[in-house]
Protein 1
Amino acid sequence: MKYFVQIALIFLLINCKKDDKKRSGFVSNKVIILVIDGPRYSETWGSDFKQYIPRMKELSSEGTIYTNFYNDGGTYTNAGHTAITTGVYQSINNSGLEQPHYPSIFQYYNEQVSKTEFSNWIVSSKDKLEILSDCNIDPYNGNFNPKTNCGINGNGTGYRSDATTFEELKRILINEKPELTLVNLKEPDASGHSGDWNSYINGIRQSDEYMYKIFNFINSYHSYKGKTTLFVTNDHGRHLDGIYDGFKSHGDGCEGCRHINLFVSGPGIKKDTVISQRRELRDIPATISSILNFEMKYGDGQVMTEIFD
């Protein structure tokens, strides 16, 4: 009997060590996804001098940049964000009248990991992105939903300024200390649709500056410093010059609409690294599930193991 007890204890210790080893590579216990809405790659990391994104150029040494990152689904706001949160490309109404079919990373996290109802948040300048908080599939429909702070006062109330979204984000991070947060900035997409080139470029510069402020906040505030992985990406790009009305619109499969940015930083993420491997939006939630240690029942993405140091 004593022999079998000893064997059982050894087996238990070995499995505990395996589990520790599995988790030890992920120092982060918080993730923030910043989605800068709708710049073309040619005006961001694809530009020769990075003149419109000086902050991202400066911070690139602090993390990993992808040069071949794509949206392979619908190249419009709600479809792009749905891919980021569910890992599935879905043709979805872009006016906020339809919620995603599949569960989000927020619902998986709340189901499997979360200890409080304030553990994850969607904070968005665009009101319509409140639809990301739920899905159609049972038992997730109506359950395990994240908190939302979208638009003026929720879906259907209109867009708000990115300045307001940034202040709301800071308030939520300080007061609620969520572990998983998605932030949407409406620029430069909102200005791009006006057809005013200077406003579009200013929208890129403005969002670049907010990215810098968010990076500095999470690397100085005690609840996030040394614990947080930051993903900075786009939901879609814009038409190339000569296609339809150029930078004013988006929504097809042209290179301008599909080719987007990805920057990742945080503890355990490679620094000063540029990766040319082709990746796509639905790989973001798969990677987050590995960092925060939860399972995704649905989702077609792959874990981007090459970012880990």
Protein 2
Amino acid sequence: MTGTDWSWRDGKLWHKTASERSRSSNPTGWTARFVENVYADQNRSQAVRTVLSQLLAEVPADGVAINVGAGQTNYPNVVNLEICDGSHIDIVGFGSSLPFLNSSVDLVIAQEVLEHVADYTALVAEVARVLKPGGRFYCQVPFQIGFHPGPCDFWRFSRQGLEQVFSTPIWNLERLSITLGHGSGFYRIAVEFVGVTSSCLSQRLYRPAKALAALALYPLKWFDFLTPLSKERDRIPGGYLCVARKP
């Protein structure tokens, strides 16, 4: 990093182009809890919790782990980076410009981040730069989900898409698996269908109709238990996680 790009403010590291505002556009309070625990509960899936717990446990006591695009998540002994400030954010900046030396980081986490980055390849390359040889990149992305600007929403990733992203000699793809199955994939689209259809009558109906649909249609998610039984499991899953190691 260069001195002109970064500065310290109130115990946090800020990039010169980072926003001064907090993430006020994101849900807060009970709305945030509803979204996290009902509609967008991908971070609570068993697959995600199992893999992340293992990766975090393997970080050495003197190692460095970064959560890029941390949002509301706050893992122990992990440096949190976001594009806007927050109470638990340590670095206010961007994943495509990380204030770490080459080969100095043990683990980088990016949960539901790449779809919001216009040039996600630059972010992936920056992660590769800062990771130590043998360091891991935990990358979690959605597949079936409605448009969700935060503040932007650019991409969706299939299994083949992720294999392509991590197919270069820079990476060894250790794991690629579904986070949410076809039940959650269908659920997300069905909820948006109800919300969008209701908004045809009045735009003000979109959010309450979507919230009611999220509750009423929740049992669709239970079909995720059947997803591993199908050879067509990659048709409409809710999303994927992958673990890529820097050789």
